[in-house]
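Lab meeting, item 3. Inverse folding demo.
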């Protein structure tokens, strides 16, 4: 009986570490319509393409900057990183987007499936996940405040 309890406890601890986490701190009110994105050439180009498409869909104009650009080159600047892994198929295991206003951090989105070993939920469509992160990170769209909740009547 003790053996089964030990095995069960060990399995519970192992599976509790198999989690996928997503955390987004929205940028809040932005009156800017331009977002400058510092290109990260070490990341698959498809990530930047999906990020730009998602920002454009929110009404932002995107200006791409070289990796050597400063965070204060534009009023609103963004950086990104991502990692892919192989486990039966290639999947995006980690993504992080940071947003700065004149060099000061104002928002961040993280998706982390690096500990999702046993989870089939890690096999997501990276483009859709990037779009979801952008929707949460920039809730109001270009030049707009985030949508207010409906008022009760």
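The presenter then showed the designed sequence:
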């Amino acid at each position: 009986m003790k053996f089964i309890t030990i095995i069960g406890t060990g399995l519970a601890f192992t599976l509790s570490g198999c989690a996928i986490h997503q955390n987004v701190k929205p940028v809040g009110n932005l009156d800017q319509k331009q977002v400058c994105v510092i290109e990260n050439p070490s990341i698959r180009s498809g990530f930047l393409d999906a990020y730009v498409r998602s920002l454009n869909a929110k009404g932002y104009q995107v200006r791409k900057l070289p990796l050597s650009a400063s965070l204060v080159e534009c009023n609103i600047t963004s950086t990104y990183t991502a990692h892919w892994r192989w486990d039966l198929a290639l999947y995006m295991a980690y993504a992080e987007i940071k947003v700065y206003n004149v060099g000061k951090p104002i928002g961040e989105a993280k998706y982390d499936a690096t500990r999702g070993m046993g989870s089939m939920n890690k096999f997501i469509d990276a483009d859709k996940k990037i779009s979801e992160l952008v929707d949460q990170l920039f809730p109001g769209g270009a030049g707009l405040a985030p949508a207010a909740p409906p008022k009760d009547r």
